[in-house]
Amino acid sequence: MDDVECAVAAAQYPEGGLMLGLGLGIVLAVLTTDFLVVVAPFVLGTIGFVVGRRVRDRKVRTLRKRDNHAE
Amino acid sequence: MSDGVESDSGSLPASIGLIAVLALVVGNAISVPIFVLTGPLAGGAGPAVILAAMLAAIPAGFVVLYNALLGSAMPVAGGLYVYISRLTAPFWGFLVPFTIPLVAWAALLITAVGFAEFTRVILAAVPQVPTLSASVLIYLLLLFVLFINLVGLRLVAQLQLILVVGLVITLLTFIIPGSTAVDFSNYTPFFPDYGAFALAAVALFYPFLGFGLLVELGEEIDDPSWTIPVALFIGIGVVVAFYVALIAVLVGVMPYTQLGSEGDLATAAAVFLPSWGPLVIASGAILAVITSVNTSLLVFSRTIMRAGRDGILPESLSNIHPRFGTPYVSLLVLGVPPLLLVPIAEDIVGLSAFIGLASLTAYFFSAIGLWNLPKEFPTHYETARFSLRRYRGLLLAVLGGAFATAAFWVVTLLQRPEIGLILIGWFAVGYVYYRYRIRKTDSVDMYRTMTTLDAHEAATAHERADKRERAE
């Protein structure tokens, strides 16, 4: 991993997204029906993880572009 | 990241062997829950609490297997934090030391409740002893344990050995005569409440966490690559046997409808033992309480120390006392707040479920980490004294453990969703703090630190490889 990838990876976007999704899933289940607790945290957690990965990839691309312009 | 090496910044001296390690792990695992949790759990779940203990042993078995594999390959201080941060992702690893203070305080509060309950039994029976309030005794206990942990691991291990012998004698005094007094009609109905049964299985997972102790102390154990797996496999056999036998006697000698209090073991002892019976049980419980508090502080302080050493928590937490060689700042962070929280310890089943859930989360990620171990640190895995083939035993262990921990997670959420919310809420606070620490430091350096090993940790694998080559 180069410095750009390390700097972005350090922010742990996919992990943050997964955790946010899990939390939203539990809140959703508590507010609606208990049975959702089996599904919602895992589904929303997975969505959060995928979104986090996209954010991470976009950040890497943005930083690389910025570095190329600076050179 | 493969076999990466980071700068060395100090290590703890190796000082304890197999017998002391066994005493530490058995003493921690068969302590508080046996004496304190079984009554309240049996009061709700009925005789099915026996089955709940057996079910709790399933994820616990995976915990033992993971600890044996990881501890044998990478013996380091602050094990779980190091494994998860190096083998899955730095943030998941960071959550271990970040959540540990809550888990430690909850564990100490459960212990405090048990101590108060059984001390009351003894004080009531011995009128010559000057009356001290339960809270005063709790404060004295916590201060005493904090003091000996500050003074050093060797002393803790020696004290633990004596206490565990007393504990085993006490348990046998309850189990052997009690087994002859069992009334089998007390085992029906076996499942009076399925919800309480499910919660009991999760709550009873907490005591098995004592097995995580060894990987946190890896650096301080003699020949850890051999000692850790051997102590773990012997330890879980001993603990499960004591655990199930004691619970079976408790619900066999008293109808579950009469159970529900933390002091039920002493009450049950009065059914089949002479008048000194409850006193023996109360003494055993007090020994158990001390062994639990003892090891809780010991283990958790090492994890926080390691995170401080990496710089993801304040570095002062990694300070080692120049005279005693202990992580004294971490010990104070863990040992002092419970002194303030003792008066609010009431819901011990809820606290146990919280500890169980937090630990299940960590072990879910360590399952993923275990799968990555042979790929990320091949020399460590190849030279470990205990290992499994990646696409055979290891794959089964990882899938089984991940499934068992995920299933227990769902069961807890169904029974107590608020505990899941508190935990995830705490993780969210942790994410904000993690980002703050990353911004405050050089994020690239921090990332590399949290994905590689210290020099002396990495060197152990190469030393083992050299030894093996010489032997061949």
Can you tell me about this structure?
The complex is a heterodimer of chains A (71) and B (472). Chain A has one domain (3-70). In chain A, 82% of the residues lie in helices and 0% in strands. Chain A is built from three helices and no strands. Chain B has 472 residues and is an all-alpha fold. Chain B has 20 helices and two strands. Chain B has helices spanning 18-29, 32-45, 49-73, 79-87, 90-125, 134-151, 153-179, 194-203, 213-216, 224-253, 264-272, 277-310, 328-335, 337-341, 348-376, 378-382, 390-415, 417-440, 443-449, 455-471, and strands at residues 5-6, 453-454. In chain B, helix 3 packs parallel to helix 8 and helix 15 (348-376) packs antiparallel against helix 17. The longest helix of chain B has 36 residues, at 90-125. The model of chain B is unreliable at 1-10 (pLDDT under 50). The chains are: A mainly alpha (71), B mainly alpha (472). The A-B interface holds A 3, 6-7, 9-12, 14-16, 19-20, 22-23, 26-27, 29-30, 34, 37-38, 41 and B 89-92, 410, 413-414, 417-418, 420-421, 424-425, 427-428, 431, 434-435, 438, 443-444, 446-448.
